[in-house]
Design goal:
The chain is built from 19 helices and 24 strands. By secondary structure, it is α+β, with helices and mostly antiparallel strands. Strands 15-24-23-16-17-22-18-21 form an eight-stranded mixed sheet, with helices on both faces. It has a seven-stranded mixed sheet with strand order 3-2-1-4-7-6-5, sandwiched between helices. It has a five-stranded mixed sheet with strand order 10-9-8-13-14, sandwiched between helices. A hairpin with a 2-residue loop joins strand 8 and strand 9. Helix 14 crosses helix 18. The radius of gyration is 23 Å and the shape is globular. The relative contact order is 0.12. The mean pLDDT is 95.
Length: 564
């Protein structure tokens, strides 16, 4: 009998929930995963459960809701009084059958009453990183805004067993600190990626807002800070306390400036603070455990500059992340842990496994044809080689191409299934692309490259488990920078995606573009506009193109749509 479980995060009765998602695991294998925002079309799915994502996954894999045996939930908020289950897992596990209708109201009748297994949030982050990587033994650093009773956790996993080594108080949250800094710089609480890009325009003053002593496992605030944060760190007010401290200590002394570059020096100080905190925490974990491999998870692991330094300077032989270290990715861990409790112990990936990226519902040629007919769009059919050559030629002419191919990638990065693509040889093309995205013109672009592309541009080599997911910045050689000027940031780096060589799909497209242009790299950003989730279905990609005059071509193999 098959063991079928769901992993969930996000519930509709908790307004503060965000990044709701679902994962379907059958007999220890992840067969699908999907973020709720792709279904509801509401960015980050604030206050939503994952019901739409669950239904889409079950339908895609022909699973009736009644066949689901249990649900793993990536947050320890079981109903009050729910007894704790004795397991070897750290942090406590609770099981309740009271909330099926609360979590999945329109599916509840078909599901029946199901056990929902509540796991520690950071444990789910750790399990996600462990089971989506090929390492039997690994240390795991989890850092985010907060998760349960802490904001940063140090784990060790071996043979599928997890140990919590240390956990640090919510008031020392790296995620909350960086979010407040983004808000102070007028980039929004969700503007961490923007602040990281802005930091490259500034020069640090030497301010380190927080430091971490790896020998004593203690955090400290910079003595120059002023405000209530210094006297008492109150978790409920922590964001406001950081804003107060910034306004009392940091130029321009308010969050009212309309000029983003006023905050560039501040952003540089914030970025270096986070990088050094990450290095200190990695050093602490290495002292406590000292495995060869370090896995990174939690929203802070989206910071590509920090990851690069940890990979280069921490002393670990291997440093790796996952396709979605943010909260949505915890559904992988919740599902895998639930499978283990039901007796179907999952295993880390085989050492030769391809990076696990594409988990969304399958899209058929019929789905594409139906969408084209619905919108009365004329499209040409092309054989794979012809299609790739046509796209490569269009990119070489500075066209912006919407690329829609197969199952969507999970997580916040476009990795070759739902992408907006442009040639990097012309900075003006990046300006057009930023207009499509509704982004500030100073925002950097990311490059997707094959192994040959990294070498030809004189770049630092890809880091397995980081570069696969655009989780690491790479310095670009001077000669390479001149060839891909649109994809290199002001600091001489790019947040690069390493794409395996392939005779099909995105890897084959990169090869075709290299043959056409002599430039073995493309600018790759997500297939959406400002405030919208990435496109999931063909009709959404069509609507994106018809609504954006700067998009010149939409490719949904085997169909090519040209702007008339």
């Amino acid at each position: 009998m098959q063991v079928i479980v769901l992993g969930l995060v996000g519930r509709p009765d908790v307004p503060a929930c965000h990044d709701s998602a679902a994962c379907l695991v059958i007999d220890g294998e992840v067969v699908g995963a999907l973020e709720q925002e792709r279904i509801s079309r509401l960015r980050h799915a604030h206050g939503e459960g994952a019901e739409g994502a669950v239904r889409a996954l079950l339908d895609d894999h022909g699973v009736h809701p009644s066949e689901v045996q249990a649900i793993g939930y990536a947050w320890a908020d079981a109903p009050e009084g729910t007894p704790r289950v004795e397991t070897e897992l750290p942090c406590g596990v609770h099981i309740s059958d009271q909330l099926t209708k609360t979590f999945l109201p329109t599916l509840a009748d078909e599901l029946g009453t199901k056990d929902i297994i509540f796991f520690d949030h950071h444990l789910c982050h750790a399990a996600q990183a462990y089971f989506l990587n090929p390492y039997h033994s690994a240390d795991i650093l989890v850092a985010d805004g907060w998760g349960g009773d802490g904001s940063t956790s140090l784990f060790h996993a071996e043979g599928g067993r997890f140990r919590l080594l240390e956990r640090y108080d919510k008031c020392w949250s790296l995620g909350m600190f960086y979010g407040a800094a983004s808000a102070y710089a007028n980039l929004g609480w969700w503007g961490a990626g923007k602040l990281m890009g802005l930091s490259s325009y500034g020069h640090s003053t030497g301010m380190r807002f927080m430091t971490f002593d790896s020998a004593t496992a203690s955090f400290h605030l910079d003595s120059r800070l002023r405000g209530s944060l210094v006297d008492a760190r109150d978790w409920d007010l922590l964001g406001e306390q950081w804003l107060e401290a910034f306004e009392k200590r940091c130029f321009p002394f308010s969050s009212a400036s309309a000029n983003a570059f006023d905050y560039a020096t501040f952003a540089a100080d914030v970025q270096l603070t986070v990088e050094e905190l990450g290095l200190g925490l990695a050093a602490r974990l290495r002292q406590l455990s000292g495995a060869d491999a370090l896995l990174l998870s939690g929203g802070v692991a989206l910071n590509a500059h920090m990851n690069r330094r940890i990979a280069r300077e921490s002393g670990y032989r291997v440093v790796s992340g996952t396709v979605a270290p943010n909260d949505g990715g915890t559904v992988f861990g919740a599902a895998m842990l639930a499978e283990a409790l039901l007796g179907k112990t999952p295993q880390p990936l085989p050492s030769d496994a391809a990076p696990p990226i594409f988990f969304g519902p399958r899209m058929s040629t019929k789905d594409i044809e139906t969408a084209l007919q619905k919108h009365r769009i004329e499209a040409a059919v092309a054989e794979p080689d012809q299609l790739r050559k046509q796209v490569a030629q269009a990119l070489d002419r500075d066209a912006i191409v919407a690329w829609f191919d197969g199952r969507n990638e999970f997580g916040p990065r476009a990795l070759g299934a739902r992408s907006l693509l442009a040639a990097p040889h012309n900075r003006a093309t990046l300006d057009r692309l930023n207009r499509v995205k509704g982004r500030q013109p100073w925002r950097p672009a990311a490059l997707s490259l094959t192994t040959q592309g990294f070498a030809e541009l004189g770049m630092e080599p890809p880091v397995r488990g980081l570069s696969d997911y655009m989780l690491c910045t790479h310095a670009v050689g001077e000669a390479g920078t001149r060839r891909v000027v649109g994809g290199v940031h002001v600091d001489g780096t790019t947040r690069a995606q390493h794409v395996p060589d392939s005779t099909a799909g995105f890897g084959a497209l990169l090869t075709a573009f290299g043959e056409e242009s002599g430039i073995p790299a493309v600018i790759n950003t997500s297939l959406n506009t400002r405030g919208e989730p990435m496109a999931l279905r063909p009709d959404q990609a069509i609507e994106l193109m018809t609504g954006c005059e700067d998009i010149d071509m939409l490719v949904m193999p085997p169909y090519v749509v040209q702007r008339s």
